[in-house]
Amino acid sequence: MSRALLALIARDLALATRVGGSGALSLVFFLMIVALVPFALGPDLNLLSRIGPAILWLAAVLATLIGLDRLFQADDEDGSLDLMSAAPVPLELVVLAKVVAHWLTTGLPLALASPLFGLLVALDGTGMGATALTLLAGTPALTFIGAVGAALTASIRRGGLILAVLVLPLMVPTLIFGVSAAESASGGTVPFTTPLAILAGLSLIAAVVGTLAAAAALRWSE
Amino acid sequence: MTGPTRAGSPPKGCAGPSLAGAAHPSPARKDRPGGSAEPEPFRSGAQSGKEAGAAPGARGGGIRILRLSVEELACRRSGRRVFTGLSFALRPGEALAVTGRNGAGKSSLLAILAGRLRPDAGQIRVADVGEASLPECLHAVGHRDGLKAALTAGENLAFARALLGDARMEPRAALARLGLGHAHDLPVAYLSAGQRRRVALARLLVCHRPLWLLDEPTAALDVASQALLAELMAEHRAAGGLIVAATHQALGLEDAATLAIAAPEPGLDRPSPTPDRDADWRDADVEDWA
């Protein structure tokens, strides 16, 4: 069973890096948003470094939505999903493997690249580290919440907009705690670990609920 | 739900001849006690979390034994009755050619057998497969080939082999058998429609599955490949496998029983005013466009 899941993760990672894959897409989108903000706000370094974590988190939420609509739709269109439903593996684990692979190609690069992009919004060293850590803890929640919407819209052509409308409200708590954790690292009354623990908890809850809900949505659409 | 397989139950309504006990003595596996096994009720959930290996002689050995019995199956899509009262039974080594006009429900029947559609009425029973559910015992090759264009043919087959389990042939050997040895390292995007179909058919060879569901398997295939497919099907049946093929052409199943799906009685059901996307995508009409 684990061999099948590893094969599925390896396949999705390979697909993300091939031609037409969505590997670098969300990262480039992330960079575009973060790079445009200083141009819009002007060269006020104090203002930029104060709202920097919020900008990075906002960009991460929007970048997560890119490519999410193809998570199950691509496999639904070409019949791969039928192949997976014939595997001796529960659909929940198939969903889990696909979402993990998706996070490895979108969420993880975002978190790892965020210190670099923090330079664009004049973050100091502590802020960069804190933002990267909160993104590492929080982007799994974003991906798993998005997976539910992706499963619901898998059989809808041009379901990307519906997907965004469906899942963005559910991503709000993650965004709130992510930004508050990143900001509390560079001053404030709340200790850093409190919102970070809640953020990690949100990711764990989303991993369980999101996997079950996405699998149920895929079954229901059959 | 559970009951003995009623081999040879008379067809009702529009169903074609029942196949049970028809022409073929199965060449292999005659050692099994024929009617003694109690068939299991079909579990419609495609993903039961069990390992598929509990069947007698399951992994590593030959093709798993499977007997399939379908009774009074009815299908309704978007409120429109597609077919009713289909009954047939298949024993190891037997094949069924499903015929009927476009839109008669051939692909719907295969989708129900594959667990992708829920039947409106009727029962599907499988026997002698142990813990495995029916979707874990079958290969389905249809209009959507399940291949990723960005991956090579070999990678696609290696993935299917790891995912489906019950590995049999190496991807390279399976491709060579289908005359595509040179395509092992080519992305599927570079292959023609007929070559893609042959890669999808090679999936039949990389994993053991006792039941093959083939939806217009000869579509886009040249004459030589059609003969090759007929050869593969004959080998599969000789090893005790089952085949259900929706087809307009003979494709080497001349000796197999035929199930003709007729049109439902007119006037009973009005077509739904809003046909869903699912129906027009998956229904048999698609084969006209291909």
UniProtKB/TrEMBL annotation, chain A:
Into which family does the record put it? Belongs to the CcmB/CycW/HelB family.
Stretch forming the signal peptide: none
Q: Which UniProt keywords apply?
A: Cell inner membrane, Cell membrane, Cytochrome c-type biogenesis, Membrane, Transmembrane, Transmembrane helix, Transport
Q: Which gene encodes it?
A: ccmB
Identify one Gene Ontology CC term for this UniProt entry: plasma membrane
Functional description taken from the UniProt entry? Required for the export of heme to the periplasm for the biogenesis of c-type cytochromes.
The molecular function GO annotations come to:
heme transmembrane transporter activity
Q: Which Pfam families match?
A: CcmB
Give the source species: Methylobacterium symbioticum
**Any Gene Ontology biological process:** cytochrome complex assembly
Please state where this protein is localized. Answer: Cell inner membrane
Q: Which residues cross the membrane?
A: 21-41, 47-68, 89-112, 132-154, 161-182, 194-218
The UniProt entry lists membrane topology as: Multi-pass membrane protein
Quote the protein name from its UniProt record. Heme exporter protein B
| Highest taxon, organism lineage | Bacteria
